[in-house]
Every structure is written in structure tokens, then in C-alpha cells.
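Quick one: structure for this chain?
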Amino acid sequence: MNVSSLPQVVSAIGGLGTAAFGLLEAVKPVMPWINHIGFGRIQKTVTCLTPNEPTARPPLNALPQANILDTLLANWVNGTDVSSQKAIAKSLIKLHLSEGNSASIAAGMNVDAVLLTQVAQNIVSGTPLNQQQSDAYARFDLILTAMLDESYQHADQVYRNWTRGLAALIAVGLGFLGGWTLSNLDLSHYLSSPYVGQAILIGVLATPLAPIAKDLSSALTTAVNAMQFVKK
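Got it. Here's what it folds into:
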């Protein structure tokens, strides 16, 4: 391989990474657990923020905890905009707030349990909140927003890291098979040849290069052309 062919090599490796990501998307319907990756952190946070009533009944005019989690999981699996997902989660958690579970929620959020209970009572009865209650509800809202933001950001990072890792495994497998096909060797000889190392290296580089392959290839082409012009 010479320097002038480097842009084409980068494009080819990036194309392998793109193919690996595409193949990962294609197998998601038969491997649905992939779409669930990362949701565990959201589930843990929302479970803490939607405790059941002492009677094990959901608060009036609110979804039970299980239905809230099912709704959020459906949005997560379908790739709904993260901002919308957080807004939906926040609304459902606020609806779940009641006199019976406010003390448990307050303990998990480090807010005044007495004031939050009063807020829940006033919301149900339609009584306006006084200044103290309004301040407590505002703090509850801010802490809730922060907790959901942290959970969704963490979950999204876990999902992206896992899918990149899975795509990298697919790319390594495709690189291995491609190298074996081109080598014209039987498997035992291929495994002991230098081709297998090259194929695995290409597979490892494929997914990191996929998002930037086009720009990097163009930059390398420009650099090669500039050097060739200088040499003339």
C-alpha cells in the first residue's frame, strides 16, 4: 500500500464500520434485548420516584408504577427524542405523587416530607399552594428534573457504548471473513497467516472510523495532492 491509496483504504475501512452498524440495526428485531440496553438506570430511578401507596393501589388519576415503566420503555425502545422522553417521565411521576406516597418520594429526593405531603393534598383538593408549599414544589420539580436528566444521560451513554462494542465485534467478524475469502487459504492455514491479524485490525478500526471516514478520506486526498504538487 502506498500513500496515494491511503484515502481509499480509509474509505473502505469506514464503509466496513457503516456496514457493521447497519447489520446491528438489522438484527435488532430478532434480538430485542439490544434496544433495552441502558434502560435499567432509568428504571431504577423511576421506580424510586413512583412508590406505591401503602394500600398497594396506584394514586387516583395516575398510572400504576408498572404501566409508567412500560410507557417509558416503549419510548426508549422506539428511540423517541430524549427531551420528550424526560418530559413524559416527569409528567407521569408528578401525576403519581399523592398523599400516601409523598413521604417515600421526599425521602428519596431529600425534600421536606411534610410540605410535599401538603402539596399532594392541595393538588388533589384543588386548593392553591401557599408560598412555602410553592417553594417546596419548585425544589421538588428541580430535583426531579436533575435526577431524570442524569439517568437518561447515563442510560444513553451506556446504550451508545454497548452498540459501538457490538458493532465492533460484527466488523471484526466481517473483516475476518473478508480476509479469509481473499487469502484463498483453508481455515487452518489462514489462522496462522499474517492476513488474520490484518483483518482483525481492520475490523477494530472500522467502527471508530465510520463516522469520520468521509472527512478523513477527503483530508488525506487533499494532503496527498498537495504533496504531489509540491514535488513537481
